[in-house]
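tool_call: predict_structure(chain=1)
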Amino acid sequence: MSQIRKTATVPKQFCVACGACANVCRKGAISIYKGSFAQVETSLCVGCKLCENACPASIIYMEENRS
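tool_result:
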């Protein structure tokens, strides 16, 4: 039986690659891809919402994922 958990999602078209989310992520789940946008490694994300709260553009949101 699969579990549903929430992980961070960053719409890359709105991301300004400031790095605020990556700086607060305690699990190292977020990195800035080629200086263009934040990328989330969903297998590392625990859904703590630190990145969501740190994003100055308020574009990060939690999305349900099956694991």
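agent: The first helix runs from residue 20 to 24. Proceeding to next step.
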